[in-house]
Design brief:
Blueprint: H1 3-8, H2 23-30, H3 36-50, E1 57-61, H4 69-74, E2 78-83, H5 86-96, E3 101-104, E4 121-127, H6 136-144, E5 147-158, E6 168-173, E7 178-183, E8 190-194, E9 203-207, H7 210-218, E10 223-228, E11 255-261
Parallel strand pairs: 1-2, 1-4, 2-3, 4-5
Antiparallel strand pairs: 5-11, 6-7, 8-9, 10-11
Length: 262
Amino acid sequence: MSANARRSRLPRRPDGTSWDHVAAWYDGWVGAQGSRYHQRIAIPTTLDLLDLRPGEEVLDVGAGQGVLASHVHARGARYIGVDASPRLIALARRRHGREGRFIVADARRLEAVPALRGARFDAAVFLLSLQDMDPLPAVLASVARFLRPTARVVVLLTHPCFRQPRHSGWGFDESRKLTYRRIDAYLTPMAVPMKAIGGGGPTRSFQRPLSAYVNGLAAHGFAIDALVEPADLPEDERPGRHRPPAGAHAEIPLFLALRARR
């Protein structure tokens, strides 16, 4: 089957993956500058891995409200953010329009977006977004077409080995007096429906083993050259509903961040 035939079988709309229907709720959590987790962990880790140079061009895939734009702009790089949600892109344009460009786009078929024709980027970023996109091969193939031969990709997501939605959790071994992380499933890819939030209906998270991301990037000539596993925030800084047992946050990572180059 040709690549064109495979692409034609994809849904014409990003149904089930766009967060447009929960944009109001999501913006209440993230806001203009990012949540506490964005500000303290996700954005600093992503920027360290990006290692931007003035004049470079960056594509933020699943940009949401554009919280990364000001940081890229401050480093002298040029920023374009794409997202499938028109509502989130509208918020990004209003708040960060002077710091970058924002385009409504399906990450699986960026080549169909007129505003991106001819564009080439030095780096692509998935900041807490790739785990909410599917199918993974179509997304990576679409983005790879817009990257220069020496480009890099930075991915930050909830840790796929330890933070599987609805298939992992904390436990306590009474006999050993030890806190542990329970993992119910890992190797089998799955689309996990998340509970309805903000009155806008459910979203889906796509659990995949780490090998899916490494091999998916390798299929387009990218090799991992850096990997970071950030732990949770200190206990006194975590939101009330994100409170693992004392000490566990320091040993079981919350996020996985990686950089791949070709």
